[in-house]
Write a structure and sequence with these properties.
Blueprint: H1 6-9, H2 17-28, E1 34-35, H3 47-58, H4 71-85, E2 94-97, H5 99-111, E3 117-122, H6 127-134, E4 138-143, H7 154-160, E5 165-171, H8 183-193, E6 199-203, E7 229-234, E8 247-250, H9 253-266, H10 272-283, H11 287-308, E9 323-324, E10 335-336, E11 339-340, H12 344-355, E12 357-358, E13 360-361, E14 371-374, H13 379-392
Parallel strand pairs: 1-12, 3-4, 3-5, 5-6, 6-7
Antiparallel strand pairs: 2-8, 7-8, 9-14, 10-11, 13-14
Helix pairs in contact: 3-10, 4-10, 5-6, 5-9, 7-8, 12-13
The structure holds pyridoxal-5'-phosphate.
Pyridoxal-5'-phosphate binds near residues 100, 125, 175 and 247.
């Protein structure tokens, strides 16, 4: 271990591992665990997408492709941005990578180094601060609360900026809170950044999973920020393609070229077969996206009402993604079945060990008073989970 680099030692170990390892072990032992810890849709990859992958294999499309992705897929991505987000890009402004994760990692590696600060609003998706550290930068965490629906305000953003600020991360809809910034909120935040040579990394992975008639609004829509906004997205969540590993990044050509260079010397092109499947997903029949969105919305409505009726739980209404992130301060410090709930990790462990419900403690997301529950599960499983949680805190 003494041979390890400062780079890897400065990274935090995944705090979610303890719970997910335990849940896996319990399931293997045949215990009836209801798992609300998944970060992926419970739906299958659509048939026509699978078929495109099969066709790719059968036609021998199984070799290296252009490092930054095939032109056919870049065209499909450009069409998606135009159709869903009102954004215009050229092919040389797009790179396809091995999942949304790699697009983000490439960007941090290309843009930050020792001394650079990256503003990350909390609660955050677990990988943002660790990716920044891996690249040598310093994450600057800005905490938000349930009162602002877990959204950063323009004043908070202004106060977090220093001469060292290089990037601001925005993730709307958010994993883990489900918060979505509306157009006015995005405009107000961008106004703070205008003319300041600060990049916005906009992670729009859940842009098509939004509720209550909200339309996603990308900061890249704002002309004054055109050269400063980098958009990351992928097919993982919208098309239930988490295992195919296709993400994409859109931004200034010079940055895309830099990501291309990093990728060419580390992983090379993303999987050829998956690229063909992603084309089918992005420009094929989109009805399934809406059908699934409606199903997620029903589950969201159920979970919001059900969790808020549990004493000690307080939940903001998620407006996107498929997570709900109750504040559980009300049960912290209390004792249930002889177990003291000191923090959210204790709560998650208690729920799993004694009541067989797997959740993710909020610590991992920079919010120690919260619990993340995924509603990428059937209504029947959600009802069972809620009943167990209610019993656990009687
Ligand atoms: N960004 C956010 C906010 C996510 O929640 C995830 C997946 O959990 C990703 C990016 C990464 O997605 P992918 O599986 O395409 O790497």
């Amino acid at each position: 271990e003494k041979y390890l680099t400062r780079r890897v030692l400065s990274m935090q170990e995944s705090q979610t591992m303890r719970i997910s390892n335990l849940a896996g072990k319990m399931k293997a032992e045949g215990k009836d665990v209801v798992s609300l810890s998944a970060g992926e849709p419970d739906f299958p990859t659509p048939d026509h997408v699978n078929q495109a992958g099969i066709d790719a294999i059968k036609s021998g499309f199984t070799r290296y492709t252009a490092n930054s992705g095939i032109s056919e897929l870049k065209k499909a991505i450009i069409e998606k941005f135009r159709r869903d987000n009102g954004l215009e890009f050229q092919e040389n402004q797009i790179i396809v990578s091995n999942g949304g994760k790699q697009t983000l990692a490439n960007t941090f590696l290309a843009l930050c180094e020792e001394g650079d600060e990256v503003i990350v609003p909390a609660p955050f998706w677990v990988s943002f601060p660790e990716m920044v550290r891996l690249a040598g930068g310093t994450p600057v965490i800005v905490h938000t609360t349930i009162e602002s629906e877990y959204k950063i305000t323009p004043l908070q953003l202004e106060q977090a900026i220093t001469p060292k600020t290089k990037i601001v991360v925005l993730n709307s809809p958010s994993n883990p809170t489900g918060a979505v910034y509306n157009e006015a909120e995005v405009r107000a935040l961008m106004q703070v950044l205008e003319g300041r040579e600060i990049f916005v990394l906009s992670d729009e992975m859940y842009d098509m999973i939004v509720y209550g008639g909200i339309r996603p609004f990308s900061p890249a829509r704002i002309p004054a920020m055109k050269d400063w906004v980098i958009v990351s997205n992928g097919v993982s969540k919208t098309y239930a393609m988490t295992g195919w590993r296709i993400g994409y990044l859109a931004g200034p050509k010079w940055l895309i070229d830099a990501c291309d260079k990093i990728q060419s010397q580390t992983t090379s092109n993303p999987n050829a077969i998956a690229q063909k499947a992603a084309v089918a997903a992005l420009i094929g029949d989109q009805r399934i996206v809406e059908e699934r969105r409606l199903e997620f919305e029903k589950r969201r409505d159920y979970m919001y009402a059900a969790l808020n009726s549990i004493p000690g739980f307080r939940t903001a209404l998620p407006q996107g993604a498929f997570y709900i992130f109750p504040d559980i301060s009300g049960v912290l410090g209390q004792t249930f079945n002889g177990v003291v709930m000191q923090d959210s990790a204790d709560v998650a462990e208690y729920l799993l060990k004694e009541h067989f419900v797997a959740t993710v403690p909020g610590d991992a997301f920079g919010a120690p008073n919260n619990l993340r529950l995924s509603y990428a599960a059937s209504i029947a499983s959600l009802e069972e989970a809620v009943n167990r949680i209610r019993r656990a805190f009687k």
